[in-house]
Write a structure and sequence with these properties.
Blueprint (H helix, E strand, L loop, with lengths): L3 E10 L2 E11 L4 E5 L6 H8 L7 E6 L2 E2 L5 H7 L1 E3 L12 H7 L9 H6 L2 H20 L15 H13 L5 E5 L7 H16 L3 E5 L3 H7 L2 E6 L2 E6 L1 H6 L1 H8 L7
Parallel strand pairs: 3-8, 3-9, 6-7, 7-8
Antiparallel strand pairs: 1-2, 1-4, 4-5, 9-10
Helix pairs in contact: 3-5, 3-6, 5-6
Bound molecules: adenosine-5'-diphosphate and magnesium ion.
Length: 256
């Protein structure tokens, strides 16, 4: 059974069809990528999976159950976490606190507990802080915990956002252009990190423009163009696909 299954999903914004009749499955356990020219509908697919948008038609199942009608926090609690194409950290919060906020989707403490500061809530807070420290270490930011997020170099901010996403203990991690703006050394670190995430048992699905990175890390690639799936398969097969070559070469935006 697929971990994630989109069945005939369409998303229209007024007259603009951003995603068109997309059917696609993701197996648990690997690293998959979604590529396509700017405006192809990739981020919209992530926004549909995470509940920011509801499909105009079609259905999305995760882990054997429909996500229909669920709000973003309920979907996060089911086990889907993400990062954003434009980094969304709390700029004036420490790196450690940023990671801790990622836990909120799964925090057990009730409103009552947090109002009364019960021992149970304090114990949970300690566990969350401890886990956040582990995650900072996991993304190679163990010495940055006290820094404001905004003071970290760009590549570190991207890794911090990944740590925050992992704090919700997801089964599936969606990364929207995680290498955007990174230098070659940061990209190498990112490739290693994505491998470690997969090895920890989290399925990774990424959108990426850097073909080298896509071809290096992903086992499976889906290609979108004008909201439609035009190819899918191994990185090698996709790279040689006529429609894919045409989709990229036919554009002036230099996405390839
Ligand atoms: P990609 O991530 O592949 O570059 P997007 O999914 O961001 O593409 O966008 C696909 C298309 O949908 C674009 O034409 C974009 O302008 C449009 N779009 C995305 N979000 C919205 C929205 N909230 N309202 C209107 N149009 C949108
Ligand atoms: Mg996008």
């Amino acid at each position: 059974m697929a971990l994630l299954a989109l069945d005939n999903v369409t998303k229209a914004f007024g007259g603009l069809v951003a995603v068109k009749e997309l059917t696609f499955e993701l197996d648990a356990g690997g690293i998959a990528a979604m590529i396509g020219p700017n405006g192809a509908g990739k981020s919209t697919v992530f926004n549909l999976i995470t509940g920011i948008y509801a499909p105009s038609s079609g259905s999305i199942d995760f882990d054997g159950r429909s996500l229909r009608g669920l709000r973003t926090n309920r979907i996060a609690a089911r086990g889907i976490a993400r990062t954003f194409q434009n980094i969304r950290l709390f700029a004036f919060m420490s790196a450690l606190d940023n990671v801790m906020t990622g836990r909120h989707a799964r925090m057990g403490a009730s409103m009552f507990d947090s109002l009364l500061h019960t021992p149970r809530q304090r114990a949970e807070e300690r566990r969350v802080r401890e886990r956040a420290r582990e995650l900072l270490k996991f993304v190679d930011l163990e010495r940055a915990g006290a820094s404001y997020a905004r003071n970290l170099p760009y590549g570190s901010q991207r890794r911090l956002e990944i740590a925050r996403a992992l704090a919700s203990d997801p089964k599936l991690l969606l990364l929207d252009e995680p290498a955007a703006g990174m230098n070659p050394r940061e990209k190498d670190e990112l490739i290693a990190l994505i491998g470690r995430i997969r090895d920890s048992g989290v399925t990774v699905f990424l959108i990426e423009h850097d073909m080298n990175l896509v071809m290096n890390v992903s086992e499976r690639v889906t290609v979108l163009d004008h909201g439609e799936k035009i190819a899918e398969g191994s990185p090698d097969a996709v790279r040689r696909d006529e429609r894919v070559i045409e989709a990229y070469l036919g554009r002036a935006d230099g996405a390839a």
